[in-house]
């Protein structure tokens, strides 16, 4: 969402100060605040020959940490581009090289030329150089990583457009980024098999990852998904609590935004039939912080902030039928008491050494609404979307 790099503003201010100090002292990229060895995970070993027998990737904590690092790489690819870094001093590669992966594709937003995602694939040559003769069990052959918003002049306009698109329509299908990312994920899934592919994202990137993963699931392609601080549909609806003037103002803003790609409705029986078949096979991993109002409603089992009954055009709202299959996601909840929002929304919290998560097989109404809605229409019956913006 629009606040993830906002959550890093204090860090960026410190980064500017540190950069000035580096220039004055003759320092280099090695001491940059976003350098892997400066702000990356601690006590995390690279793959080695022992992984052939007992893979670190089977450890959920290890996998979560690496996936978060891959998203950080997607952020830094764009920051490297904006700051004109060369391959010799780029920050991003250090966030995938220790895990024996390589960059094979960058996802470009044609509207402003920014990098919003990356495809990372297992680097067999780098692994062999360290006497790793096979890919560790549980390590994906390819990962599509999607960044969130960067509040810098080069990217802020297009990033915020998609943020507002989600808040207005609770759908990102109208964005050019959706098609680019969807095509990239489908391509690597076709190449390696869906069981060997993962999609990961943070905040706005997690919103894209969730909807792209669900769109592929409709086609019978089930990829592993790891979603950090995913935006909740309840965020926009919470504006109702501010009164009629806020609602009126929001409707005016909403009318000015690019329309979401609405999907056609079908009978509840057909919807439930598709849901019953598919939902058992696709279970995304959601990582939320209770102090982050962007995603905290996923952890609310009561669904206390509802999406309303007049949202029929929205991607993530569907009729609830008690006979439908129960939907599930693996929900990992971090609660450290009352944290500041900026801290609760940061990506780097997900590779902290002292991280303690509560794991829940969700029964949240919000997640049920998110997942069930994507099976309203079988892929073969979907309308061809209009021109994307």
> Beta-sheet strand percentage?
5-15%
Residue-averaged pLDDT, rounded?
74
Q: Calculate the terminal CA-CA distance, rounded to whole Å.
A: 18 Å
What is the N-to-C succession of helices and strands?
Answer: HHHEEHEHHEHEHHHEEHEH
What is the SS-derived class?
A: alpha/beta
Over all CA atoms, what is the radius of gyration? 21 Å
Q: Which architecture would the CATH scheme give at its second level?
A: 3-Layer(aba) Sandwich
Unreliable stretches? 2-27, 238-243, 260-271, 303-326, 374-386
Total DSSP helices: 12
CATH overall fold name: Rossmann fold
Strand element count:
8
Number of domains: 1
Helix content: 25-40%
Main sheet, how many strands, which sense, barrel? Answer: 8 strands, mixed
Strand order, largest beta sheet: 1-2-3-4-5-6-7-8
The geometry reads as globular
Topology:
Elements: H1 9-25, H2 36-39, H3 60-82, E1 101-109, E2 114-122, H4 124-129, E3 142-146, H5 156-169, H6 176-192, E4 197-202, H7 204-218, E5 224-228, H8 234-237, H9 244-256, H10 268-278, E6 285-289, E7 330-334, H11 341-344, E8 357-361, H12 365-373
Parallel strand pairs: 3-4, 4-5, 5-6, 6-7
Antiparallel strand pairs: 1-2, 2-3, 7-8
Helix pairs in contact: 5-9, 6-7
Description:
With 389 residues, the chain is an alpha/beta fold. It has a single domain, classed as Rossmann fold (3-Layer(aba) Sandwich), CATH 3.40.50. 35% of the residues lie in helices and 13% in strands. An 8-stranded mixed β-sheet has the order 1-2-3-4-5-6-7-8, sandwiched between helices. Helix 6 packs across helix 7 (204-218). The longest helix is centred in the first third of the chain and has 23 residues, at 60-82. The chain starts with 8 loop residues before the first helix and ends in a 16-residue tail after the last helix. Mean pLDDT is 74; it is low at 2-27, 238-243, 260-271, 303-326 and 374-386.
